[in-house]
Amino acid sequence: MNRTLNTRAALTPSLIVIVGFLTVCPVVMLIIGSFSEGLGAFGSFTLEKYTLAYTDPAFAGIIINTVIFTIGSAFVATGLALFLAYLNTRTNIPFKFLFRIISIIPMMIPHILFSVSWVLLLNPSNGMINLLLQEIFFLEGSPFNIYTLQGMIMVEGLLDLPIAYLILAPAMASFDVSFEESSKVCGASNLRTLTRVTLPVLRPAILASFILVIVRSLASFAVPSVIGMPGRIYVLATHIYRIVATGFAADYGMAAAVGMSALAASITLIYLYRYLTSESEKYVTISSRGYKPSVIDLKNARYPLFVIVGILSFILIVLPVLVLFYTSLVPYSMVPSAKAFSMMSWRHWIEVLKDPISLLSLRNSVFLGIVGASLGVTLSVFVAYVIVKIRTRASGFLESLSFLSFSFPGIVVGVGFMWFFVQTPLYATIWALLIGYIATYLPYGIRPLTSAFVQIHSHLEESSRVCGGGTLYTLRRIVIPLLIPGVVSGWILMATMFVRELTLSVVLSRPGTEVLAVQIFRFAEDGLWGQLSALGIIMIFISTTLVIIASLIGARLMKVETVSQ
Amino acid sequence: MGIRIEGLNKDYFSEGKRIRALADVDLTIPAKQIFTLLGPSGCGKTTLLRCIVGLETPDSGEIAIGGETVWSSKKGIFVPPEKRGLNMVFQTYAIWPHMNVFNNVAYPLQTRKEPKKDIIEKVKKTLRFVQLEGFENRPATKLSGGQQQRVALARALVAEPKVILFDEPLSNLDAKLREETRKELRDFLTELKITAVYVTHDRIEALALSDAIAVMKAGSIIEIGSPKKIYFNSDHQFVADFIGRANLIEGKVRAVDDSYAVIDSGIGAITCPKSPDTLLGNTVSICIRPEFIKVMENDTRESRNIFRGKVDSLVFVGEAYEGDIIIGATRLFTKIESTFAMSAGDEVTLFFDPDHCFVLSK
Question: Which of A2, A302, A376, A393 is buried most, with the most CB atoms less than 10 Å from its CB?
Fold first, then answer.
């Protein structure tokens, strides 16, 4: 009895120490680093790096770019999400299942590959759409140039569409229709009702989605690096990357100093988001009465609007994979034609599979995916247990601590960890990446597990004890089987995140610890699109395989109990 | 197998305040009876049950089940719940959603590693007993509320526990099903002749199911008795009030004879059964239940407990009128046959049998 009490009592503080280290360490190191002279020279306090960073004549332009890029993406993502959520929840548009796909599948496609596919389509020198339009309309130059702020905003907006949709669709669905009905009773048209009643009432949800997209695009590295950098358009994330990875000498102090403003902006925004979402619960817009929202008949607009949705899902899901696969087979960028098909070969695939660095990155990423996700989920199980089942002030603290890393931009966390790892033998090992990954993506593991624990009512454990099952027996037959769905989804989320991880890796990865996304990024920098595409498809394949294996194992483990009579 | 509880204490700390969940509880639960702990929410009845089963540890005191001490603060004994040989039906039923009916019911036998053949045999027998024959392979999630309740009961019964405990097992059922299940449960338990401890806040459940009822309030047991004793002749005002609607009238004892006492009260002289408290000159409280107050058409042979009053309000609730009748400054709550012709404002004659009212001791 006493022993179990002691282990329980020790659990919360030790988890606070571990999670605290993972989330707070990079931030603390970032702060210390920003006031130091250089990696390994902590001793002397200096403001030199701040002066250097913020008197840089290019800095103002970077801030302006960042603001336009993040706000622009927020407009694109939120606007599109509103359109889709409204069509799905409030109208009689056909094939509603497509909306679920739109909201989930794009998360499966790594951001870097999505960005690359748009570069392949719209780059000014040999983008496929550009070439096609030139051929058809006999144009002199390329009609589109992806390497612009508009291009970045469009791609980032599409990438963040799912997250905006996941916030807006539930709000739209639980919306009290009597507001709208009373507006219509007053004689207002559908459109007028939409603009004067529906949208204002949804304002908290719209603002929340808007802010969350800003946070995401502020932390985004794939789009700014693949699309922005070739066009010499720098935002905070790429500016930090430029400071540590290019030029004559990497300056981690200056990177830390710049990172401080990205971190501050991000934390402020998340704080604002939390405030808004808690505020929106106060509005009594969500009625518990179970009636269905009135459905608006789109009449003749039904199919034209559906075509728009269809095109959107094509752009979001099918096109990127198709473009990559096509590019991996043709020798150089060309418009699909009879000639292109005749020249197709597995050449790029063979090159990639013979390239030692690509193979190494493949091995590293698979290792990080499997081992990292397993360790991450193990930690998440304990953290979620303490958060849900041991409700003390300390466990509340652990909860806020473990979700803190949501608001840290990956590249900033990377720079912070760099300052830490350089002091340890972990520097330039795969373990540095592993620790960094778990620290950054811990919330993705904890979320599904907290909901799993919430479902295990204490009576389910207690009744097992009363039925004669000891602690271990109860754990084996009741608690663990009920946890498996949560463990599996947590593992899948973490593993897919780890296999595709780019932002943190570009900072922490060193020769010997290359990972898939970084290798793809290098290919993009060198313009080796064919090999990039082949490796990209392999990456998607690996993610999918891991997802399938995890689901199968989960299904297997859950089946055992119901069959064994 | 009886249960003996001595000097049990348990405190909770909630928002910096100390709440006494159990205050020096002494209790003996006789074997092979249905014993009910009844009380309002927060009175400590569930805490007491959870202490008996071992899911909660008291601060001090002693619990013995069938002569074996399972918890003692002085002797430092703590037998974990899985070794106490009890079973329990939870308020939420606690049916494991990842198992089918067979595995749910077989669980207590599986923990004891009984031979597979015996397990199948016993589960089958128990499922037949609770009228769920052939449900073995049904997933637990595909059961109705009433069926889940019976699976929970089957699981509690299958290993033939010494004592079976019920924590408000009917409160999650809808009103009609609750009534049916209550009857079934009564039949099951009488047939089994098993010691059962039943926790509820529902007085009808308590009256209908129990052999004995212990009424609890603020961590203490106020009164123990048979359902009839508790209903017709409770000693405490709290108990009288909690177990059913009650009119409580204060008065002074004017006369006492061999079996009755006459009490002067606000509505007149009341004749009621004599009790140790009805000493001449004492001030006592008399309890009269609404359903025993009758409205008389005209003067009757009765000479005792006849009162004249005015109908203040009358609500038709189907099987009866619920009427407030005013006598002097006292308001009496009554239940009158719904066929009786009367309306608000009428003057009526009331009567109640002296044997149907009783004196509260405190």
Answer: A376
